[in-house]
Amino acid sequence: MTIRLIGKLAAGAAMIALMAGAAKAAEQVEVLHWWTSGGEAAALNVLKENLAKQGIGWKDMPVAGGAGSAAMTALRARVTAGDPPTAVQLLGFDLRDWSEMGVAANLDDLAAKEGWDKVIPAALQAFSKYDGHWIAAPVNIHSTNWLWLNKAAFDKAGGKQPTNMDELFTMLDAFKAQGITALAHGGVPWQDGTLWEAVVLSVGGPDFYKKAVLDADPTALSGDTMKKVFDDMSKLRTYFDPNFSGREWNLSTALVIEGKAGAQEMGDWSKGEWLRAKKTPGTDFVCMRFPGTQGSVLFNADQFMMFDVGEEQKAAQMKMASAVEDPAFQIAFNTVKGSVPARTDISDEKFDDCAKKGMKDLAEASSKGTLMGSLAHGYAQPAAVKEAMLDVITQHLNGQLTTDAALKRLPEAVAAAK
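RESULT FIELD:
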């Protein structure tokens, strides 16, 4: 009898453990992402902790090196095997590409319940939805047309913010005269493209940006305005230091933080590096729109696309999507990341001066129709076209193509990639 009782107790304990394990497995999300730098990892921890408070486990699937082929290869293998992650960090046209495969979860009920349509900008919804259905939860909105200045060097250069390319060159000359690198830049294609798209917007204005970058119009890509863009890029190249080739963006940011460089053109994720270095906007550094682009915002938004997973995982998946759009999380995350909330209904009270400007600029651009996708970060063109354009831009910047050759090659490259 004792043996039988012990057997029953053991079986019962095993069943309880099995049920507990199943419940635990059900309340877990597996997330593929590439947030591996210091500021990025700190921002991601905000989401992990938010979900942990709800009893939801987090299984990390980090892929270092940015949103490149390694991340997509890993994802493709999982999806092909019928075992996709709960959520994947994706950008722009990649969201559409994966949705076309029929592997996206449907977030419509959650989005309707929480009113996402009313608070997420239309330009962003164009990627957060596929075929009219919500498939992703946007985490933030980054913008790429920023210029970051070392305040001490800026003050020494006269303290006047440049409003066009000529005034920018004058300021960069003043930095050069101080014996520091005028413009910190990392020579990799996406960074070259980030700088190029800001110059396109500055030289041509928003209508030209739409025609040349969003529409990839061959006339715009090869005309006189684009010639000025490439000529200005050649001149900007003269302000780089000799060691720029292949340098990571955060190392260029560090040069400006340390006063070894005067300026950096980069998206607002670089602000996270300044904040981690205990620097204060307005006191230690200046954030301004790239000269000539005030009134327009080139955006890049991190989004978590939800994949179609088994029923036992959907509850945790929906909790994660809801947690991403929760205003408290949007504030906590974006104050660490350097970006601004993906929602337009959030107070700027807890944000620093640069973020306050970013939020104001975003609202203005969204209302004017000048909130436009970044080419370098996948929100302007599909991957094949983007890579073709970046290839020409990088070759030109490195002196492998003359301006005339680049004007000929750019529309050819776009046509071949389509």
